[in-house]
Amino acid sequence: MKRILILGIGTLLMACNNSTEKLNSSDSTVLKAADTTEISVSPDTSSTTHLQEAATENNVAEVKANSLEENIKPAVKEIKVVSQVKAEENSDLENIKNGEVLISKSDCFACHKVQDKVLGPSYKDIANKYAKNKANIDYLVNKVKVGGSGVWGAVPMSPHPTLSDDNARDMILYILSLK
Known about the structure:
The chain is mainly alpha-helical. The chain has helices at 2-24, 48-104, 123-129, 134-146, 165-176, and strands at residues 29-32, 38-41.
């Protein structure tokens, strides 16, 4: 949040600086007043300062608003992305903790251990074999529910058809977090 606030303040200062530089340039400048009439300001006239002040008073809010709007949109997108990532990380942590509890209450430890191979592979071996992505998670959820053999040897894994997809997914997330 601090980063976004600093980014916004920096953007505002840059926008104000740019509009001031444009007003102070040595070329003749065309300014639009609030009623959309154009005021031409050339540096050699004595009324330049007064015209610039009048135009600035009328347009500062408009210039700042336009500059801020253009620069805030990416910052707002960044806030949404960051908050979405944080929410997903928190959700994953909750799911991982839930998966650990579910495994501890299940029959999984009859064939698996965290570090050691028993009848089936250790959870660490599974985590090292499969990257944490949707395809692998879906595959492993199905494998837990349907059972099977051949991937880790001839000993079949018993099916767990009564296990919900959500609970199986949480258990898989826990196992894949053990890398």
